[in-house]
UniProtKB/TrEMBL annotation:
InterPro entries: PPR_rpt (IPR002885), TPR-like_helical_dom_sf (IPR011990). This is Pentatricopeptide repeat-containing protein. PPR repeats lie at residues 111-145, 146-176, 178-212, 213-247, 248-282, 283-317, 318-352, 353-387, 388-422, 423-457, 458-492, 493-527, 528-562. NCBIfam families: PPR. GO terms for cellular component: mitochondrion. It comes from Zingiber officinale. It holds the Pfam family PPR_1.
Length: 579
């Protein structure tokens, strides 16, 4: 799935804030961890957490620097804490905790630097209980944990999804929380749709004299757009400006995105146009958000106009910009225009990716133009863009629908050689195709291959196989498959029951079919109209016309089946191959 436009921009926002606030202490090391690469497109949550992560790293570097002896002075040796530091560096978390506990018993005071590292180590492994134990020891031993130690603990709790525990630690801090502390907890609360508590925490932050920063307000504005709507988000924007905190392009993009999601596209466009007057020029992400909204509401003319305007203003479109437009054109069946746009991407310095080609391939497959789809695939590979599993699944589906199941089988078997492992839908597509053309033997082989690879089949896999086997008259094998699926914990649906009941009726084994119907009821599966219709026609097919008529009348009187569904003279089973 393609990353939303403004989410990608959040990474750039993070780097900007890093550059603006970076302290001179260890700058290169910090930037190396959080630098932006061309391929990095993590989601918004990860990007925002990276921002907090950098703040923690920056603060920790200051923290360590502040404890480094000045030139000409040396600390007295502390064998216990030096040993603790070695244990922590070796990753021996449990042994480190035991050693800290033994130090306290012997009346020694643990150093907060290795203990902070130990807390971080436990948190990274999701062992927040152990991390909290270390913090508790520090608090009770007189070691006086500082804001860095608390921030590490709070960040660990937030990452583990424990916002209430994080708030508890915040409340009991023996030192003043800083903006990193609050931002970490705010992000955790807002991620869990707890905006009200987030706003209360903002008030507390202001009361304690801790100034919110750009990131603080962006978190809250984002949450307000999701929970309360753009109106409250705009109030936060006004408050942000009043407090002397200048919004940046990411803050504005969050608001534009919120407006578009609320269907307020006209306001979003006006907001985009006014951004320069706010001292902030819109970027490609700003335009992409609106382009996507225009296309999703069918406003192609407006989207085309905006695309041209952004180029005229010197805002170069990105791959995402082109992909939005290509996807729209392909959905509308305008394949020629989509191809033209795809070929023009290089003129704007954009290299098409799989998300550029996939809609085109899907569009040609939908129009049953397999030659054009394969031609597009070849072009894709020749340009150095390798297909992904979505590309192949699209082709597999189209080939099977077009009756070219042998070609689909060959493609499936070659996927791993192409560096693309088949997934459940890949196998399901081919198994269904094989079952429909009467090659259930090969379909069963693919089922075994799935199981061998540890890929769990689902009810669709078995429904295709059972239907195929019953069509071939292999009802015994179908029932065996039915029993197998129950053994591995898959609950059969009405389609599977109906297939077996139909297969038994085709073999004029209506009594067994009725027994299987009884099993269906006892298993808690609800029969469908087709279930009853198959049984009625099965009785008729065996010459039990009176019983069939009586059952039909009773079911009609109860409103279970329609009166005209069954036609005893022509035989309803004809479509099922039973006449």
């Amino acid at each position: 799935m393609e990353t939303n436009s403004y989410e990608v921009d959040m990474r750039n926002h993070i780097i900007k804030v890093i550059h603006d606030n970076l302290n001179q202490t260890h700058p290169k090391n910090c930037l190396k961890r959080f630098s932006l690469t061309k391929r990095e497109k993590g989601d918004l949550d990860r990007m925002q957490k990276d921002m907090i992560g950098f703040d923690r790293a920056r603060s920790l570097s200051l923290h360590v620097a502040s404890r480094t002896p000045t030139r000409g002075r040396r600390r007295p040796p502390d064998p216990s804490n030096e040993h603790l530091l070695r244990l922590v560096h070796r990753g021996e978390l449990d042994e480190s905790l035991r050693f800290v506990e033994s130090m306290v018993v012997q009346g020694e005071v643990p150093n907060i630097i290795p203990c902070t590292s130990l807390i971080r180590g436990f948190c990274r492994h999701g062992r927040t209980g152990n991390a909290a134990r270390v913090l508790s020891i520090l608090e009770s031993s007189g070691a006086a944990p500082d804001v860095i130690t608390y921030n590490v603990m709070i960040a660990g709790l937030c990452k583990s999804g424990e916002p209430d525990a994080a708030l508890d630690v915040l409340r009991r801090m023996s030192v003043a929380p800083d903006v990193v502390t609050y931002n970490t907890v705010l992000q955790c609360l807002c991620d869990r749709a707890r905006l009200k508590q987030g706003l209360e925490l903002l008030d507390e932050m202001l009361q304690t004299g801790c100034a919110p920063d750009l990131f603080t307000y962006t978190i809250l504005i984002e949450a307000a757009c999701k929970e309360s709507g753009v109106q409250q988000a705009m109030k936060l924007l006004d408050e942000m400006r009043t407090k002397g905190c200048t919004p940046d392009v990411v803050t504005y993009n969050v608001l534009i995105n919120g407006m578009c999601k609320e269907g307020r596209l006209k306001e979003a466009i006006e907001f985009l146009d006014h951004m320069p007057s706010y001292g902030c020029n819109p970027n490609v992400i700003s335009h992409n958000i609106i382009l996507r909204s225009m296309c999703s509401t069918g406003r192609w003319v407006d989207a085309e106009k905006l695309f041209a305007e952004m180029i005229q203003k010197g805002c170069s479109p990105s791959v995402v910009s082109f992909n939005i437009l290509i996807n729209f054109l392909c959905r509308r069946g305008q394949m020629g225009r989509a191809i033209t746009l795809l070929d023009k991407m290089h003129e704007h310095g954009c290299t098409p990716n799989s998300l550029s080609y996939n809609p085109v391939i899907h569009g040609f497959c939908k129009e049953k133009k397999m030659d054009r789809a394969v031609e597009c695939l070849d072009k894709m590979v020749s340009r150095g863009c390798y297909p992904d599993i979505v590309t192949y699944n699209t082709l597999l589906t189209a080939l099977c629908k077009d009756g070219k199941v042998d070609v689909a089988v060959e493609m499936l078997q070659q996927l791993e050689d192409k560096g693309c492992s088949p997934v459940l839908i890949s196998y399901n597509t081919v198994i269904d195709g094989l079952s429909k053309v009467g090659n259930t033997e090969k379909a069963v082989e693919f089922l075994k291959e799935m199981l061998h690879k540890g890929l769990r089949p689902d009810v669709i896999t078995f429904a295709s196989l059972v239907a195929g086997l019953t069509r071939e008259g292999k009802v015994t094998e179908a029932i065996s498959i039915f029993e197998e699926l129950q053994k591995i914990g898959i609950v059969p649906n009405a389609i599977i029951y109906n297939s077996i009941i139909l297969g038994l009726c085709k073999l004029q084994q209506t009594v067994r079919a009725i027994d299987f119907f009884a099993t269906m009821i006892s298993d808690g599966r609800m029969p469908t109209e087709s279930t009853y219709t198959i049984l009625i026609e099965g009785l008729t097919n065996e010459g039990l016309t009176e019983e069939a008529t009586q059952l039909h009348f009773e079911l009609c009187s109860r409103g279970v089946v329609k009166k005209k569904v069954v036609n005893h003279s022509s035989g309803f089973l004809a479509p099922f191959g039973m006449t």
